[in-house]
Every structure is written in structure tokens, then in C-alpha cells.
Design goal:
Elements lengths: L2 H34 L3 E6 L4 E4 L1 H7 L3 H4 L4 H4 L5 H7 L3 E7 L11 E10 L5 E9 L1 H33 L9 H13 L6 E4 L6 H11 L7 E5 L5 H9 E2 L12 E2 L1 H4 L3 E6 L6 H13 L1 E3 L6 E3 L2 E7 L3 H6 L5 H7 L2 E4 L10 H15 L5 E2 L1 H9 L5 H15 L4 E2 L6 H10 L3 H5 L3 H14 L4 H8 L3 H10 L4 H8 L7 H9 L1
Parallel strand pairs: 6-13, 6-14, 7-10, 10-13, 15-16
Antiparallel strand pairs: 1-2, 1-5, 3-4, 4-5, 8-9, 11-12
Length: 503
């Protein structure tokens, strides 16, 4: 053998060694991966002997790998189908197999197996592999699922408890007789599945009422789906309400989309601003309300929609019916149980309670905590609130953030509210509706602004001068002492001292 042959032989040996090293690494990785899976994996050669068996299979049958490889498969599994699979060139996916009694360590007999022949490129079958799913892993999954279901149920109950507190009628404070009657009526309506039409000005809390009705109903555990009929373009409203099938139109979502009716199945669907719904959509809505089925855009099958419908509007639907912009038949279908929420200006006695409620929400979120002065509450009660409760909440939020002190005072309110109060003046009825500390602060402020002239003060307050004197005596307010304090002849305590210093 010459030098060239020797060098060539050495090169071939190095190549074979490298290939062997690579194969060994692949085998190690292959075995490690197969030993990680919980399913049993086994390979049987053409001779019927076991070529490979993973750790899960060994544990299930109580054997060692080194004692099993090379032995006939029938010795391990007498009723094996692997030999038949090779002979008939079968592929079996997820088929049931039952081991003989007492064969497995766990006692498990019924399993699910997948068997495939292993072939060379020329189609020759050289082995057969099987992947067997043992139920012990399934049991572990079931245990995990049950544990997760327990957690879900816990969080669901906590969420339900929170919703009951947040969205219940008890969370709508009132001292107003009319509003209390509306609450009682709505709570009684909640017990049925008949449609409810909530009417009221913008910001009175129609959606809050709808959620409270849902929470008081037998559908409280179902979904509450809300859609604003004015916030969605008319050409998209149908797909939002009823959904669509895949390919119904260009740009649609793959797989289609479920509509709000379908999402609200066995729950409540709240259609806000129903008065702004296009007439073309009103016809389709009426049809769904009549037969209880929804037909998706591009669909051929109808979907059952077991939904309690609550609608709301701030418009005069009777006028819209005359104008032919709202269908009379739909109106009768929706207005089965009417609820009319009074505006905030008609329940001014509720303003302090609402103000404290909103203030507490702000204090829970932000620092430092703030309170509200009595004279500020008095100002809030004098304003007409065209935006109702929503406006009140926004005004308090703005005042909370803009004041640098820990007490929200009247001067912290928006200027347009102060100007409206100033131009409106007082009347005797408004003054009688105030809390004692509010009334006292109003008396002192009005006296100061009118240079302690009792005639002018009584006129501004809308009361008789004798009534003013009675109130001054009631609150121990002495005009002479106030004037002397302003002139520097005597000190003032509390609110009067501050007002005198400012004068």
C-alpha cells in the first residue's frame, strides 16, 4: 500500500468517525426527546423484535430498556397489532387497543394508539412504530383542568360579587321620591324577560340603570353586551349586531364574526341611543325581536338568540315616528316596559351623596386625598346640570385635579358653572333644600358680596328680610361683628373671619 492509498484510507476513516459521532449525538438527542414525552413510543423491526422503547413504555410495563430491546414484541405485548400493521402496510391513527388483564403495572388496559410502518425510499418496510397515549397523563391534565376550573369559578364569583355591588340598584343613592319610584319600578321590571325602554336626558345614567336591571334579573350570570347605535357607521351596524360568515364581503375577518346578538345569548343586550338607528336597520331588528333568530350576513342558517333586550334613548320617539324616522311597530315592540329617569336638576337633594361617591372613587385612585367644602356642595346644588350625572362626575374630577389644597372649594369649580350660578341667583325653595352648614356659608358669602346690606342680601337670596333676620339669629351671625372685623376693630373666627379678611 503506497502513501497515497494510506492517506486516502485515513481520510475515509476520519470521515466515518465524524459520521459516527454525529449519528451518536442524534441518537442521544432522539432518545432524550422521546423519554420526555408522557406517551409510550416503541419500534419493532421486521423480525418482530423490539428495536427501541422509550422510558414511558418501560414504566408502564415495569421493565428495563436494556432487558427489552432485541426481544420479541409478543413477549411484552401478547396481543400486539404491530406485526399485522407491517404485514398489511397499514396506518392506524388514534385507534383503541386493550391490553390483557394484569399486563401493565398501573392496571390500565384501554389505551389509544397510532401505528405507522417505517419504509425506505424504495418503499420497503423495515419496521413499525407505535405511539400510545396512556390515561395517567390524561388524568394529570384533567386534574390541572379541574384546578383551573376551580380558580376560574373563584374569580367568577369574586367578579359577580363585585358586579353585584357596583351595578346594583343599592349603588344608586337617592333621597328623591320620584327617583326612588323609578328605581323600584325598574327593579320590578328586571324580574321579567320583556323588553325595557329607558328614556332620559344625556348623562342621567341610562347605561348604569341597564346594568342594574341586568344584575337584578335572572340573567345576571349571563353576558351583558352593550352597543351604541350612534358610534358605529350605518353600513357596519348590521355586521356588528348580527355578525357575518367568512367571505361575506371584502376585508372581513377570516372565519367570520359573531354578532352582538349571538354574543349576548342567554344574557342581556343593551342598545343605547336606539333613536338614532337607521330605518333600514330598524326593520331587521324588528324581525329578530319577533322570531328570536339571527341570520348572519352571507349565511344561510339562522342562529338562535335567547336575549333580553334593553334599549335607551334621549330623543322623543313619538316625534320621530311622526317624522317617519322611527318605525311605529318597532316602538311598540321596544316600549313594553318604559323607564323614565328624571334629570339631575329635578333631584338636587341627591347631589351631595353623588358628589361624595365620585370623590371617594377619586380618592381611591389619586393622592393626596381631598374633601369638599359645604359651600361647594351648595354651589353644585344650585347649578342646572344640562349634562346631568356625567357632567357632575367630570366637574368633580376636574376640580379634584386642579385644586392645590386638600379641600375642593367653590372657586375650584369651572368658571362657566360659577357664572351660571351667579346669573341664576337664589330662590327660597333652593335655600330651604340646603344642609345647615351649606345654608350658613351661603348667608355669609351673600352678606359679604352685598356689603352686609340685609335688604340686598334678602333680595338676592329670594327671601323676605324678616326671614333673613331669623336665619341670622339661628346661625348666630352678627352683622355688627362682621363689619367690625372688616374694619380691623375685632377678630373673626372660622369662615366669617376668612371672608372678612378677603373683603
Amino acid at each position: 500500500m503506497n502513501a497515497d492509498d494510506s492517506e486516502h484510507l485515513l481520510e475515509e476513516l476520519r470521515r466515518l468517525k465524524a459520521e459516527n459521532t454525529a449519528l451518536t449525538r442524534r441518537s442521544i438527542c432522539f432518545e432524550a426527546a422521546l423519554d420526555m414525552i408522557p406517551d409510550g413510543y416503541i419500534v419493532v423491526g421486521r423480525d418482530g423484535n423490539i428495536d427501541y422503547i422509550n422510558n414511558s413504555y418501560c414504566q408502564q410495563f415495569g421493565v428495563k430498556r436494556e432487558d427489552t430491546i432485541g426481544t420479541p414484541i409478543t413477549r411484552l405485548i401478547p396481543n400486539t397489532r404491530l406485526l399485522n400493521t407491517m404485514e398489511q402496510d397499514l396506518t392506524e391513527i388514534d385507534v383503541f387497543h386493550e391490553f390483557p388483564e394484569g399486563l401493565t403495572v398501573s392496571g390500565e388496559r384501554k389505551v389509544v394508539s397510532t401505528r405507522i410502518p417505517i419504509k425506505l425510499d424504495n418503499g420497503e418496510i423495515i419496521a413499525c412504530a407505535a405511539l400510545t397515549k396512556f390515561s395517567r397523563y390524561t388524568f394529570k391534565l384533567l386534574q390541572s383542568i379541574h384546578a383551573l376550573e376551580g380558580e376560574i369559578e373563584y374569580y367568577r364569583s369574586e367578579l359577580s360579587r363585585h358586579s353585584e355591588t357596583q351595578h346594583s340598584f343599592d349603588n344608586l343613592p337617592t333621597s328623591n321620591v320620584s327617583f326612588r319610584k323609578v328605581k323600584e319600578l325598574a327593579e320590578r321590571f328586571a324580574k321579567s324577560d320583556l323588553p325595557i325602554l329607558i328614556r332620559g336626558e344625556t348623562g342621567v345614567g341610562k347605561e348604569v340603570f341597564a346594568k342594574a336591571i341586568c344584575q337584578a334579573s335572572n340573567r345576571r350570570s349571563g353576558p351583558f353586551i352593550c352597543i351604541n347605535c350612534t358610534s358605529i357607521p350605518a353600513d357596519l351596524l348590521e355586521s356588528e349586531l348580527f355578525g357575518y360568515e367568512e367571505g361575506a364581503f371584502t376585508g372581513g375577518r377570516r372565519g367570520g364574526k359573531r354578532g352582538k346578538f349571538e354574543l349576548a345569548h342567554q344574557g342581556t343586550l343593551f342598545l343605547d341611543e336606539i333613536g338614532d338607528m337607521p330605518v333600514s336597520m330598524q326593520v331587521k331588528l324588528l324581525r329578530v325581536l319577533q322570531d328570536g333568530y339571527v341570520e348572519k350576513i352571507g349565511g344561510e342558517q339562522k342562529v338562535r338568540a335567547d336575549v333580553r333586550v334593553i334599549t335607551a334613548t334621549n330623543q322623543n320617539l313619538e316625534i320621530k315616528i311622526e317624522d317617519k324616522t322611527f318605525r311605529k311597530d318597532l316602538y311598540y315592540r321596544l316600549n313594553v316596559l318604559p323607564v323614565v329617569i328624571p334629570p339631575l336638576r329635578d333631584r338636587r337633594e341627591d347631589i351631595p351623596a353623588l358628589a361624595y361617591l365620585f370623590l371617594e372613587e377619586l380618592n381611591d385612585k389619586y393622592e393626596p386625598r381631598r374633601d369638599i367644602a359645604p359651600e361647594t356642595l351648595a354651589c353644585l346644588q344650585r347649578y342646572s346640570w344640562p349634562g346631568n350625572i356625567r357632567e357632575l362626575k367630570n366637574v368633580l374630577g376636574r376640580s379634584f385635579m386642579t385644586t392645590e389644597e386638600k379641600t375642593i372649594r367653590a372657586e375650584n369649580l369651572p368658571q362657566h358653572i360659577l357664572a351660571a350660578i351667579e346669573s341664576h341667583g337664589f330662590n327660597g325653595q333652593e335655600l330651604r333644600g340646603l344642609l345647615p352648614e351649606q345654608e350658613r356659608d351661603i348667608l355669609l358669602t351673600t352678606l359679604r358680596k352685598n356689603n352686609f346690606n340685609c335688604s340686598k342680601t334678602a333680595k338676592v337670596l329670594g327671601i323676605h328680610r324678616a326671614t333673613l333676620y331669623t336665619k341670622l339669629e339661628k346661625f348666630n351671625i352678627q352683622i355688627s361683628a362682621l363689619r367690625a372685623a372688616i374694619l380691623g376693630d375685632a377678630p373673626l373666627n372660622g369662615f366669617a373671619a376668612k371672608q372678612g379678611a378677603e373683603e
